[in-house]
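Task: sequence design from structure.
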């Protein structure tokens, strides 16, 4: 056993975060699981934009994530997205 990490191990450790409130607060009980996952995907993309300084002088953050791409990941149609 070594104390080193390989880049392939780090890539495998990536994950999306879902707020617990989506599952514990009655306000979100009727929210579909796809919507919850879409939130996590969009939040991840937002964090990437912040990390890469993709924002303007007014502080508006830019990120690209089209409905088609989101639909492919969620395995649903564009109108569903």
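Answer:
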């Amino acid at each position: 056993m070594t104390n080193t990490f390989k880049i392939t191990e780090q890539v495998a450790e990536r994950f999306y975060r879902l707020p617990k409130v989506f599952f514990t607060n009655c306000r979100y009980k009727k929210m579909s699981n796809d919507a919850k996952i879409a939130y996590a995907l969009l939040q991840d993309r937002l964090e990437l934009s912040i990390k890469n300084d993709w924002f303007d002088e007014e502080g508006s953050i830019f990120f690209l994530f089209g409905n088609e791409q989101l639909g492919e990941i969620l395995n649903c149609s564009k109108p569903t997205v």
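The two ends are 45 Å apart (CA to CA).
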